[in-house]
Amino acid sequence: MRSTLLTLLLLLPVSGHARRLTMAQFLATASKDYRLRNHEELTDYFKNARTSTPYLNRIELRAESDFDRPRQRYELRVYPKGWGETRHTRELTEVTDQSNRLADRAIFNSALQERYDLLLDHLELTGLLDLQRQLLAVYNDRITVLRRKSASVPDFDVTALLSAENQLVDKRLAIIRLQNRLTSIRHRMALIAGHPAEIAVPRDDLLPIAEIARLARRARRVRPTRDIDNIYLQRRRVRVKRADVRYRLEVARDRDYLRFFKVEFETDRHDQLERAFTVGLALKLPFINPDRHEANRRKVRYLEQKLRLEQERRETSERVISHSRALLRLLAQQKVLRDRKDRGDAEASFRRYLAMDGIDPLLLLKVKESILEGDIRLTEIENAIRKRHVALLDVLGRLGQRPLRNVISRRGEVLP
């Protein structure tokens, strides 16, 4: 691939000079994504939130007065938690914190993939626009040649000119559509960068297609239960663990066999302390089953989460196979087009015809059109390969793997 430096100029109606960013610097803005900042507030809240009092549900202080005689009674009543309730409450707090941290990583993963897609879309559109404008020039030249022929050839077929003019109009409309898409992508990239920016994307710095092909072949041999541990499976496993802990916590709450313990003090017996203080407790008989509706609901929820985890594993395996097969199909198409381009059949014919005297200019333009159309198809397929490569890395759990690296770069530099 020829060495071409594409500068992605992102324009916003704000003052100030545009900063120059590398691909890695633009990708690193994923850590400042607004979705991530909003969710981090929730994570920090749960992290710093006060936890429940261990071992005790509540403590009550009761007081009674007798107006007929000077007597007052004070009672301190303690309600302990169920057997194991404190331990499971602590486990629920830990697993909730783990779930929130994984949610942060999932949001970061999504933001990072969005930036990869924007970079690749911008790269594709700028390349396509350049090729389409060259093709537009070919169509203009064809119309010029046809108009000259129409004036000099008596039996000229005017439908050929009309067809060429229609092609020209269609190509102009196609270019406008590409420009609209490019403007939208530039605007989105500028919003993400937080300021007007120039992002340099050297084509020679992109990961070679051959490297992507090797990854696609290796992915077909991946064992889903052992080799794949992406953020989506990690979150699903934590959901299963949280549902299990909630069920165990609900069961522990029903084990409050010691309902309460109390200490009483009566003021009219203060001169006899052994009579002034009394103690008591209340026990719940374990063989009397209370309403277990909530515990049963928690158990059903836990089993549902286990089923979803198994479904997620199967779907992940299918996505890996689907992405790898799609990559191999795209790579096969790219090889056909690349081999044709490398052989240079069309380019050689064009140069040979160009050197001939008296060659029909329409034939030269047809050969040039064929070359450009091949380059357009090659650009589209190579961009589809790179986007599918990023999606495959995401499913394999390597897109957000630490240390973070630029996975579409040949050098694979660490993100700042």
Describe, in plain words, how this protein is organized in 3D.
By secondary structure, the chain is an alpha+beta fold. It has a single domain, classed as Outer membrane efflux proteins (OEP) (Up-down Bundle). The protein is 64% helix and 13% strand. It contains eleven helices and seven strands. The strands form two sheets. The chain has a four-stranded antiparallel beta sheet with strand order 3-4-6-7. Strands 1-5-2 form a three-stranded mixed beta sheet. Helix 2 runs antiparallel to helix 3. The two termini are 28 Å apart.
Q: What is the 3D shape? A: elongated
Residues in helices, as a percent range: 55-70%
Instruction: Let me know the number of strands.
Output: 7
CATH homologous superfamily label: Outer membrane efflux proteins (OEP)
Q: Biggest β-sheet, characterized?
A: 4 strands, antiparallel
Going across the major beta sheet, what is the strand order? 3-4-6-7
Radius of gyration: 36 Å
- As a percent range, the share of strand residues is 5-15%
**What separation lies between the terminal Cα atoms?**
28 Å
The domain tally reads 1
CATH third-tier fold name: Outer membrane efflux proteins (OEP)
Unreliable spans are: 1-16
Number of helices: 11
The level 1 CATH classification is: Mainly Alpha
Structural class: alpha+beta
Topology order in helix (H) and strand (E) letters: EEHHEEHHEHHHEHEHHH
- Return the average pLDDT rounded to an integer: 82
Give me the CATH architecture, please. Up-down Bundle
